Amino acid sequence: MKAALKAVREWVSRWWVEDQRLQALALTAIVAAVVGVPWWFIAPQVEMMTVDWRFRVRELLGHTPFWAKDLVIVAIDEKSAKELPMKVPTPRDYLAKLIDHIAEYKPRVIAIDFLLDHPTDPKADRQLAESIRRAGNVVLPYQYRNGGPKTLLPIFRNAAKAIGFADVPSDPDAVTRRMLIYHPNKGKKVISFPAAIYQVATGHSVHELGVGPSFLINFHSTAFLDPKACFPARNFFVEPKPPREIFENKIVLIGATHPDTRDSYFVTPFYLSLVQPGRHFATGVHIVAQALNTMMTRQFLWEPPYWLVRAMAILLALFSFALLIRFTPSSGFLIAIGESIVAAVLVTVAFVWANLVLPFTPLLIAIGIGMLGALLYHFLWTRRVLKAAQERMAQMERMRALAELAGGIAHDVRNALSSVTMATELLLEEITDEEWRKNLLIIQQGIQDAINIVNRLRLFGKQNREQEVLMPIHLNELITSTITFTRAKWFYEPMKRGVEIKVQTDLEPNLPPVMGNPTELRQVLINLIFNAVEAMPNGGTLSIRTWRENSYACIAVQDTGVGMTPEVKRRIFDPFFTTKGEQGTGLGLSICYGIVTRHNGTIEVESEVGKGTIFVVKLPVAKGMVEPITELAHLPPMRILVIDDDETVAAALAEVLRQAGHKVDVATNGMSGLQLFKPNAYEVVIVDWLMPGMDGLAVAQAIREVAPMQPIVLTTAWQSQLDAEAVSAIVDAVIPKPWTPKSLWEALQQAFRAQRMTQKL
């Protein structure tokens, strides 16, 4: 239990504290609150603004809603109220006179948008009921929610041609947006006031319209400012009388309105969900008129169902997140603005040409959510990248410090061992006693081991490539040869212990070559294979896979061994850190890290205790490089002597030349090179300039004294510091480091030309 709690604490510390995810979430929550809370209140206004914009665009394009010619409003407006003996509520004797006057014009329907649910003066009530009965075509409204038709006084209900409920949902600004056609009531569809007017006026059932129980009202119209559509009530009581054609066979609505009634719009699905669902609207004759006009002219506006709107918002949020994480936060903000503009254009196009009402606000909020998610992603990613960069910098600093120490140690130790090596070789030539020779050979081997350790130390922190040979390397071939070379480690040694280690390869057939030092990269593979084998003491599977990832060639070395703890994994590349006790030096993976870094690549490790480990090496692919054999093989087969104090460089150059078909001998210092050299034994001698003891120019001068015609090529990373005239008198060509196959080929060609010219002279 304690171990489990400790593991949980470590996980929380690693994922939430070290990566600062809590801070990221807190920051995102604050931003969301600052941005989102105001949106909760201004979203309806934003939606109204976008709807207004859509209507204006539609008007500019000539798609303005039109008004039915047979629909007229009789407005009891402010001016009528001033000139007529009116009271509030409207006196019913006045309404009776108004109905009588209008009925003389033989209208198709007279609709009175006043609730007659309370008794007033009995005489006035009877007078109005008689006027309604005489007209014979009057439609009245009632309140459905307050008792239904029973709320309408019986004397009016019995006199009316038809009745309908006047319950219309209202919003905070008291402007209707949506009109109900019917209420399902105990299996019967009870129709609304505008629907009742429609049925009386047309003789058709409102259910034949093909819409659901409600529809959006198209309010954006200037009908109330048109004298032909809105007639003031006061004109009925002055001379001359209105022309008959204004009301004859028309649908006449009587109600309290105002000539400058403001245009209004409708509610979208998002608005309904945001502003108190279930809240209902105020009524007015302009509401009834617009609803009736919409039904009569079939100018219905369609809206998607709520689930589709939510799905669109979710998909847009995911798309915005996936898009914005590819850009910097500042660029992402501009892209989010562009997305909002595109969304506004799309909803406008859908509205103008398809009468489709797509809510804009949820799309805008979805884009905002995607942007906030992208900001959180960038924050976490930046923290992770920064943390990784800090770890790499710390690793490089450790390697650099060790490199300075190793460089001084290597210089002093190699100088000290040089004299011991020479003395040992002299004793081996002089002493014939076998027992003494065995002891000297042991000393010689110990010295060589010490030199190898020094050479390995020199690899730490090596930041420049001045001492390296670069050539295109086919990783698949390098892996295949390395597996064969290490067969004893992964096959014979485990077999002696009675365990089996299987080696599996999955090599990408078209993997492009990489530029590098084959000796060093082989050393990386050998170290990884050896570590994998040692991590599987009871046997297992060693898998090596290659693939291409963008501009990198990748190698994965995976084992099924004991795995690593998070602490070990964090320190695995530290110099001298080892889990092998006295058997390990802690240099192998540190050297691998340095080699891969020098090749402009990366090496990463993933491991879990009991489930194995995988090392992934990524190296940049070669670009525009020529295979070394392509040019070097054009030369005739030669015997070449390479003299270089860096064994890695010498071995890599020898491999390049051998692949081109040449025979190569290698010496690691000037004295051993002179001992190998014999006149007419080599077509070319390649010697490094800066070497301890005897430098390259001294070696070249000594060879010249023995073989004046010998072609000699000098190599150096410090060409600018050479005296060109003095060097040209000793050597035939100079190769600047790092070598390339082309520069090597040109230098050999130059050496041969110089030799031929000398022979002609």
Number of strands: 22
Query: Radius of gyration, Cα only, in angstroms?
Result: 47 Å
Net shape: rod-shaped
Determine the N-to-C terminus distance: 91 Å
Mean pLDDT over the residues: 77
Label the structural class.
alpha/beta
Our count of helices gives 24
Describe, in plain words, how this protein is organized in 3D.
The protein is α/β, with parallel strands linked by helices and 761 residues long. 50% of the residues lie in helices and 14% in strands. Strands 4-3-2-10-1-9 form a six-stranded parallel beta sheet, sandwiched between helices. Strands 12-14-15-17-16 form a five-stranded mixed beta sheet. Strands 19-18-20-21-22 form a five-stranded parallel beta sheet, with helices on both faces.
Question: Could you outline the blueprint of secondary structure elements for this entry?
Answer:
Blueprint (H helix, E strand, L loop, with lengths): L1 H17 L2 H40 L10 E5 L2 H6 L8 H12 L5 E4 L9 H14 L2 E5 L11 H6 L2 E4 L12 E3 L1 E4 L2 E4 L1 H10 L11 E3 L13 E3 L18 E5 L13 H6 L10 H13 L8 H19 L4 H26 L6 H70 L3 H24 L13 E3 L1 H11 L1 H10 L4 E6 L7 E3 L1 H17 L5 E10 L2 E8 L6 H6 L16 H11 L3 E7 L3 E9 L7 H5 L6 E5 L3 H13 L3 E5 L2 H7 L7 E5 L7 H11 L5 E5 L7 H5 L4 E4 L4 H20 L1
Parallel strand pairs: 1-9, 1-10, 2-3, 2-10, 3-4, 12-14, 18-19, 18-20, 20-21, 21-22
Antiparallel strand pairs: 5-8, 6-7, 11-13, 14-15, 15-17, 16-17
